[in-house]
Amino acid sequence: MSGSSSHLRPAGAFTDDERAAVYRAIYTRRDVRSQFTQRPVETEVLLRLLTAAHHAPSVGFMQPWNFVVIRSAAVKTEVQQAFDAANAEAIAMFPDDRKPLYSSLKLQGISDAPVNLCITCDRSRGGPVVLGRTHNRDMDLYSTACAVQNLWLAARAEGLGVGWVSILDDATLRHILRLPQAVVPVAYLCVGYVDALYDIPELELRGWGQRLALDDLVYQDRWPATKPVETPSSRIP
Amino acid sequence: MSGSSSHLRPAGAFTDDERAAVYRAIYTRRDVRSQFTQRPVETEVLLRLLTAAHHAPSVGFMQPWNFVVIRSAAVKTEVQQAFDAANAEAIAMFPDDRKPLYSSLKLQGISDAPVNLCITCDRSRGGPVVLGRTHNRDMDLYSTACAVQNLWLAARAEGLGVGWVSILDDATLRHILRLPQAVVPVAYLCVGYVDALYDIPELELRGWGQRLALDDLVYQDRWPATKPVETPSSRIP
Question: Taking the model in full, what pTM does it have?
């Protein structure tokens, strides 16, 4: 234990300025579809983002992620076609009164962004029994999503925007990227420099949804027995 | 569109100091089990953490999360018992040569931490069809994991530590917290002030695993056809 305690470091609160910077990243981060510039993303900067992702928490120190960095126009074109096909299916799923607004939304920046990045989760990594994953098999997927968020916040600090493209058929994306069976494509991201970002989420700006009140989302000690007040989003048809 | 463009704000890179603060949060964040102090967590600080979580990206602006803030000793005791039962099951799953080390690890700080927090995902929020979730039903779970990471980094900046307790039986935890069927307990977190943190992950320090080399995890354009070099964690039995 003396060996361990020599690795303890003082860990108080950040200075006010440091803390403000962390919150600035959290609050000004946006899901970017249209604001990418053509400025190339330097390998050095990209590696800083990937290193930030790699330092996410992972269940049992499993580090289940891989990073497929896509700069190839050919691969981007295949993914774009996969998005177009999936999005056509998606439009059909919405009620008629939502279809015009849905169709007007730009939901990806695949060809606009200099870099596309698929962050995957290798569900076989670490062998059949992973510490902390014995009772919840999805912990590795959650770890990978935490890596996405680390990268997203680091990108904001570096002046890059990130957009998460989720309207993709899983089998098609796996085929394009040649992913092994045990590897799940958790996030397909568009990454590039931005000069400007919206001050509120684009879906809020366009009238698709609104920010829920935090007060309605917080409970004390247990889920309340009475049905909570209906939230605005639950009324969206 | 002119209405939208009025919401665009300049969004360049952070200053060097601001960027360093974001990376400091990312690199010094730890999964805390033993370093919690008994200093009470002020409601105001806790609300800052929850607000940071609430500003995570969410698929279709679904905001699927709720926050069950647990200060009740009775609830903590029930969760502690659930952990003890699950962890006894977990130990039995590991090979004999790993059991002594596993048993020596402290894997939760349920009673040590002044605040426990369950971040949940309401899979029914937003109705049956959610933008961006049409082709991947798990996007709401990933959004919730991003909220966890936002909170974790904000906590680091505030001088608080967070530990994620994943060795819990899902049905037992749902029963204790009285979660409705559609609500998934994504993360059960222990939260409290810390004075010190390890400089490397505790599982690395104790010899359970080691940091993988980032180079081995990054691929260009597609997953390579040849089997990648075996990584240290894949050799753990």
Answer: 0.95
Burial classification of residue B98, based on how many CB atoms lie within 10 Å of its CB (0-12 exposed, 13-18 middle, 19 or more buried): middle
Kindly state the helix (H) or strand (E) to which residue B82 belongs, with its residue range.
Answer: helix B73-93
Question: Is B96 within the bounds of a domain?
Answer: yes
Residue bearing tokens 């992620």: A65
Task: Test A146 with B148 for CB contact under 8 angstroms.
Answer: yes
Mean pLDDT to the nearest integer, A120-132: 97
Residue A1 falls inside a structural domain: no
Find the CB nearest A169 among B135, B176, B225: B135
B62, B69, B209 ranked by CB distance to A218: nearest: B69
Full residue range of the structural domain in which residue B167 is found: 30-207
Would the CB atoms of B131 and A223 count as touching at under 8 Å? no
The alpha carbon dihedral of B27, B33, B39, B42 has a sign of positive
Q: What is the CATH number of the domain that holds A157?
A: 3.40.109.10
Among residues B170, B103, B58, the alpha carbon closest in space to that of A203 is found at: B58
Length of chain A: 237
How far from A156 is each of A69, A107, A195, CA to CA, in Å? 18, 19, 11
Tell whether A16 is covered by a domain: no
Kindly state whether residue B104 falls inside one of the protein's structural domains.
Answer: yes
- What tokens were used for A117? 């990045």
Q: What is the pLDDT of residue B235?
A: 38
% of chain A beyond a pLDDT of 70: 94
Q: What is the mean pLDDT of residues A119-142?
A: 97
ipTM of the complex: 0.95
Residue A188's H or E segment, with its range, is strand A183-193
- Nearest CA distance, A38 vs chain B (angstrom): 14
What is the number of CB-based contacts under 8 A between chain A and chain B? 385
Interface probe with B: pick from A62, A76, A84, A149, most Cβ of B within 10 Å: A149
Structure tokens at B50: 């929850």
Please indicate if any CB of chain B lies within 8 Å of the CB of A174: no
Tell me the CB-side half-sphere exposure of residue B69, using CA atoms within 13 A. Answer: 18
Query: Residue A186, Cα to own-chain centre: how many angstroms?
Result: 8
